[in-house]
UniProtKB/TrEMBL annotation:
Molecular function GO labels: transferase activity
Protein name, entry field: Glutathione S-transferase domain
InterPro entries documented for this protein: Glutathione-S-Trfase_C-like, Glutathione-S-Trfase_C_sf, Glutathione_S-Trfase, Glutathione_S-Trfase_N, GST_C, Thioredoxin-like_sf
Taxonomic lineage: Bacteria, Pseudomonadati, Pseudomonadota, Betaproteobacteria, Burkholderiales
Keywords: Transferase
Length: 202
């Protein structure tokens, strides 16, 4: 498998998931700005969306969109426990969280990273994000992870996205449960390895 990624982007989520499972994979750096690969070739030629992540399987199949990719990864290593079994109510709860993170949090950050977003809109975007993150903080009141006591790919995705606040002025220091959650995830060996590989930590 090949994972096309950009350092610190949402592709960090499947990157961590791959390291958690121990599945063999190759990292391929893809610039989301220039749409070029490290060898200078055109990323758009293989992925017209021009975004990361993209997972290329050994048979040539390509999967895009983070929530789909992390579920695929988890299903290749069911013993990892990163996703409940397909068809169970717990699996639908996982999908519920993945959808919430991708639509309400991930996309909520997009205007704050976009250079053409009007300055007067940014406080509105930050407040909306904080409200949604406060909801997550409340959900963590009686559990260690989003699904309870079982660590999953939804936790990985939340860890990645909630970490973007430091770059765009979204201060989560007033959300103690989310902060504690982030500390738990950050201490995991697979998370440390992935972040080192992307140059995010030393």
């Amino acid at each position: 498998m090949k994972l096309y990624y950009s350092p610190g982007a949402c592709s960090l989520s499947p990157h961590i998931a791959l390291r958690e499972t121990g599945l063999p994979f190759e990292l391929v750096l893809a610039s989301t700005k220039t749409k070029k690969l490290a060898d200078g070739s055109d990323y758009l030629a293989i992925n017209p969306k021009g975004q990361v992540p993209m997972l290329a399987l050994d048979d040539g199949t390509q999967i895009t969109e983070g929530p789909a990719i992390v579920q695929y990864i988890a299903d290749q290593a069911p013993a990892s426990g990163l996703a409940p079994a397909a068809g169970t109510i717990e699996r639908y709860k996982l999908m519920e969280w993945l959808n919430f993170i991708t639509s309400e949090l991930h996309k909520g950050f997009s205007p704050l990273f976009a250079p053409d977003t009007p300055d007067d809109y940014k406080p509105i975007a930050r407040n909306r994000l904080l409200a949604r993150l406060a909801y997550v903080d409340e959900q963590l009141a009686d559990r260690s992870y989003l699904l309870g006591e079982q660590y999953s790919v939804a936790d990985i995705y939340l860890f990645v996205v909630s970490g973007w606040g430091q770059y765009v002025g979204v201060d989560i220091s007033g959300l103690p449960r989310l902060m504690a959650f982030r500390a738990r995830i950050a201490a995991r060996p697979a998370v440390i390895a992935a972040m080192k590989a992307e140059g995010l930590i030393k």
